[in-house]
TrEMBL record:
This is Transposase. Pfam families: DDE_3. It comes from the Bacteria. Residues 15-73 form the Tc1-like transposase DDE domain. GO terms for molecular function: nucleic acid binding. InterPro entries: RNaseH-like_sf (IPR012337), RNaseH_sf (IPR036397), Tc1-like_DDE_dom (IPR038717).
Length: 115
């Protein structure tokens, strides 16, 4: 283990911690990787652009579908009111649908046969 990462004051964790990171260059430096190893942290990097894996992007898309798509919003005040209404009223009403949309529900697909 590189001595520059561990001063001896912080013991490694007994259970591994998993951290999901975007692909920013500063998360991929050798220093970050070395510290993660010393502290028993496993780093997982998201693909370069993966909005389908980001819950905030999914929520934004869902909000956009219900507030902005196919709606004329006369001015910024109306836009603000509609977004406020979405988060304070509609979000509660559509909680079950939203939970399904924001969850990581993936399918394992069988490869196509060559016959």
């Amino acid at each position: 283990m590189p001595s520059r990462c561990h001063s001896g004051n912080v013991p490694p964790l007994s259970q591994k911690i998993h951290i999901i990171l975007d692909g920013a260059f500063y998360y991929r430096t050798e220093l970050v990787k070395d510290i993660a190893v010393v502290l028993n942290i496993e780093l997982h990097y998201l693909p370069p652009y993966s909005p389908n894996l980001n819950p905030a992007e999914r929520l934004w898309k869902y909000m956009n579908e219900h507030v902005c798509n196919n709606h004329y919003l006369a001015n910024p005040i109306v836009f603000h009111e509609e977004i406020h209404h979405f988060f304070n009223v509609m979000l509660k009403e559509k909680a079950n649908e939203l939970i399904y949309r924001l969850n990581d529900i993936f399918q394992i697909l069988n490869p196509a046969s060559s016959s």
